[in-house]
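Ops channel
N.P.: pipeline sanity check, posting one input/output pair.
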């Protein structure tokens, strides 16, 4: 009986000693020391989850812009943007479904937040439609 109690006590102490308190943000994501904050790739999918881009998106990390031309006839009200970000960064606002890009005069703005949550860079997404 004593052996079991001692084994349990030692096990509990070992578990408590190994526990580290890692900081997490409001989304439950790990906050790291990384200050990098940029978009490395951008994809735009239609309702069938196939790309609607006419060529690669042009990402300017200095001007913090993304320019993408979509195929003629694309339903701009039902698009699914996909961002590839630097390691540990996150996007604000979160993309939870389809996005309406139909108001071409008012481009969407998404903010990339660094892993340490101290650097925030707004990226403006400009959509143009392929001419006929």
């Amino acid at each position: 009986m004593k052996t079991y109690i001692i084994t349990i006590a030692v096990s509990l102490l070992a578990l408590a000693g190994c526990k580290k308190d890692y900081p997490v943000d409001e989304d439950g994501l790990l906050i790291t020391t990384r200050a990098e904050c940029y978009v490395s790739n951008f994809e735009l999918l239609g309702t069938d989850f196939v790309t609607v881009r006419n060529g690669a998106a042009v990402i300017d990390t200095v001007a913090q812009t993304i320019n993408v031309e979509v195929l003629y006839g694309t339903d701009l009200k039902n698009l699914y943007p996909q961002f590839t970000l630097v390691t540990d960064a996150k996007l604000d606002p979160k993309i939870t479904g389809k996005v309406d890009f139909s108001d071409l005069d008012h481009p969407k703005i998404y903010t990339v937040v660094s892993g340490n949550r101290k650097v925030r860079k707004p990226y403006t997404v400009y959509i143009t439609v392929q001419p006929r």
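N.P.: looks fine end to end. The domain at 22-129 is CATH 2.60.40.2340 (Immunoglobulin-like).
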